Amino acid sequence: MKIGVSTGCFYPRTTLECLEKVAESGVKYTEVFFNTDSELNEEYLEKLKKTADENGVQIVSVHPYTSAIETFMFFSRSDYKLVDSIKYYEKYFRACQVLGAKYVVIHGCHTTADYMTMEHYAAIMNALSEKAREYGVYVSQENVVKFKCGYIENLKEFKKYASKEIKFVLDVKQTVRAGQDIWRIMELMGDRISHLHISDHDENDDSLLPGEGHFDFSTLFTTAHNRYGVDCALIEVYNNNLDSFEQLKKSIDYLNGVTI
Questions:
Q1: What is the C-alpha separation between 151 and 130, in angstroms, rounded?
Q2: Integer Cα distance of 26 and 11 in angstroms
Q3: Per-residue pLDDT tens digits for 76-97
Q4: Which among 143, 179, 189, 230 is least buried, having the fewest CB atoms inside 10 angstroms?
Q5: 180-204: per-residue pLDDT in tens?
Q6: Would you call 130 helix, strand, or coil by DSSP?
Q7: What is the pLDDT of residue 243?
Q8: Residue 67 phi/psi, 5° resolution?
């Protein structure tokens, strides 16, 4: 399993500074978590690409800073907003092209949007996916607490209608927060999992660096790789889970020692 670190772990630094911290950690894989619109301009993207290349870091995916408002952008009752929102997400698809990334991570629609059936949800995601494929990249639906695809029953229905071009991100922390069975979610996502977002947890904290809780990463990696062909796992925790850089390196060493 290829182990990496999301730039989001080092927020609130700028994304370029976060990428530099990823490189400093010694890993060779990352997800770029954008923080604001200005980071999507071509000049800034080229700086990110240069930093990644100089340090031998592969950017696997990008994470939109607009994830929290995707319900209002794509899944409202307004068709004209949908058109504008798909056009806006072309910025992320272009960012993937510049950075050499293959996936744009999507949170999707909030569970409170009762008017949004999973069939309609999938139709909108299919339209977004079609536009992404024009750029040679994929949208990758993440399971997130309080969002529709964070829950098994919704995810099961989504797969009935979703294009096979749509990929999935399996997030360990989010399965815990949503009270879902991670192995069932993995089974539903199947061989369309683009990569993993990993963290640890215990009885008191649902977001810890891997190795600081009791989660079974050996079984996770073995099952994901051998059954579904997953080969990349990215540490994604909050900055308050990082007390020191040495703490992160210890976690990376721990994961590199997990056999599959």
A1: 24
A2: 18
A3: 988 889 999 999 999 999 999 9
A4: 179
A5: 999 999 999 999 999 999 999 999 9
A6: helix
A7: 85
A8: -55, -40
Question: Domain 2-256: what homologous superfamily?
Answer: Divalent-metal-dependent TIM barrel enzymes (3.20.20.150)
The domain ranges of the chain are: 2-256
Q: What is the pLDDT of residue 79?
A: 84
Q: Dihedral sign, CA of 248, 252, 254, 260?
A: positive
Q: Does the pLDDT at position 259 exceed 70?
A: no
- Residue 143 is classified by DSSP as P
Burial class (CB in 10 A: 0-12, 13-18, 19+), 254: middle
- Could you identify the residue written with the tokens 């703490």? 247
In order, the DSSP letters of 40-93 are GSHHHHHHHHHHHHHTT-EEEEEE-TTGGGHHHHHSSS-HHHHHHHHHHHHHHH
Residue 75 tokens read as 């899944």
3-class DSSP state of 188: helix
Q: How many Å apart are CA 11 and CA 1, to the nearest integer?
A: 25
Q: Is the pLDDT of residue 242 over 90?
A: no
The model's pLDDT over 15-65, given as tens digits with 9 standing for 90+, comes to: 999 999 999 999 999 999 999 999 999 999 999 999 999 999 999 999 999
Mean pLDDT of 216-222: 97
- Taking the C-alpha atoms of residue 28 and residue 66, their distance in angstroms, rounded to an integer, is 26
Helices (H), the chain: 15-25, 42-54, 70-74, 79-99, 118-134, 152-161, 172-178, 182-189, 217-228, 245-256
